[in-house]
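To close the chapter, one final illustration. This time we ask the reader to focus less on the individual chains and more on the assembly as a whole: which components sit near each other, and how the overall shape emerges from the parts.
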Amino acid sequence: MDAAAMAILLQQLVNSLAISAIIIMIGIGITLVFGLTGIINFAQGELLMLGGVATWLLVGRAGVNFFAALVAAAVIVGAVGFLLERSIFRFTLRRPMNGFIISLGLSVFLQHFVIRFWNSYQKSIPDPVGGVWQVGSIRIAAVRVMVVAVTAAAVGFTFFAISRSRHGLALRAAVADQDTARLMGIPVARYVTAVFVYGSALAGLGGALMIALFPITPFVGQDVVVGGFAVALIGGLGNVAGAVVAGLILGFADGLSAGYGLPEWTEAYSFALMILILLVRPQGLLGGTEGPAIV
Amino acid sequence: MSGRVSGRVASAAFLLLLVALPWISPSYRFLSIAISTGTVAITLYGLAVLFGQAGLMSVGHAALMGVGAYSAAILALRLGIGFWGALPCAMLTAALAAGLIGLPSLRVSGHHFVIITYAFCTLLTIVLTNGGDATGGASGLDLDPVGRLFGVNFDSVRNYYLLVLAALLAAMLATDLIARSGYGRTLRAIRENEALARAVGINTALHKLGAFMLSGAFAGLAGVLQAYYLRHISPGLYGGLPSLYIAMSVMLGGARVLYGPLAGAVIVNFLPEVLSIDPVDSRMAYGAGLVLVILLLPGGVIASLADLGAWAAALARRTAGRWTQLAQGR
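The assembled structure is written out below.
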């Protein structure tokens, strides 16, 4: 491979990283909520969309600094998640299929709620970081570096919170055996709420990062949610590291197919890959929980 | 017993009303909306067999309608096979496609499988969009009118309405027969306890695929009827969002009662159009309505109405009994 081809490949890989970051962001929310609480929330994509719209309102309409809006989007969507869990999903824990169907209704509701008040057109904000770095022959937009850095920080925090902290231990105990966990004094129901709120906040953060990269519409959730489920199922439910690996695979497949021909089939790869992996390894590439229903 | 008789009378009156509809209110717009509602309702009956009886949910059923519609269009454009020839072929291709989508259900269960059906649906949209000349790409394909058969001109909206109605009644009848038959009992056994069903000798894999293919044939039929009614089809009609609406309508109406799917189609497709409700408002209402129905009336609207009716009848009987006792001076 000559130097020019190498440079193009590296450029594509760098571009793919930012796409991977968004996919990982929604995928981790889904893998945690689905894998640790058993709630299948199809409206996770709409939560991401809400995060994007909130950022657009704050930055575009109110002139708030992007990074303040980023935090605000995570908080706002986390609060929405709290309301949803307490008022709706709490009552579906024993019957996950009902929760799934409710989330379909919710996703339609949220889409049209946003359209109702802020129309269905594309929404975008000016590049919050600006500038392009030249590293050798590769050009890197600073905004993409920011997106990857924020994602890496969120992933790292999530990973250590679950695998190292006291709360993570309690959560894993609750997933492994909720009755025993409850006997040991772990407030299982509260952990379910906490995981749902945390997953929602991650979706809000992902939405803010997404609108920093490209324009979004109220229907963007439908496109990203399947990618998110693909990441969760390919990586293994509840498995943060698996979600990162799966997100990188899908992101690179996306970026490379866009760069090397057949870009119109880009989306098809992730779906085909997901179906294939689910058929061959239903537990996911790295293994995970069975998606238990904690009650 | 009298409840059952009055129920039958009510159904007969309702069906008669459906047949007489073109002569009662001949407005073109009204009949067109009724036609599109009818085609969707046929798909809903297919999904009701799959979900209500076999317990398999699919959020990819619009894709199966798409397979039927595109089969009909391609047959017409490439081989010159018209509506009547395309009908059985499209039902077959849709059933085969459904079998393909159903295959993973033998290996992955519950929610994993539901997500796979959605992925299949999105995949089909991508394939149709990138299909080039064969599928007409993103702009889709055009179809000729249905034409005449036995001297009946199906290009008139009234006759096409009656055709769709006949297909819908056939779908309802088939659904009812399946639910009452031994086959329906087999499917329900699989729904309630798959391991137990297998243990008593039911070939669960065969029956799950069979239910899926049957349901696909319904969707294929609906797809052809819809395609020849619209006379133009494009990938967007058969993507993820239409599939979600189909799943939603079945749940809203109720999958295990005869009039449930029809009620779902009427609530989601017919009423907002006829009443000219703003589509954004009506969709917000349906999203919220679905959440409430599942939380409060998990059997669907129709089953809950039936429960309410039974409760009212019991109350009336009790009250009548009380009065008789009083009258007899006890």
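Confidence is low (pLDDT under 50) at residues 291-295 of chain A. Chain A has eleven helices and two strands. With these observations in hand, you are ready for the problems at the end of the chapter.
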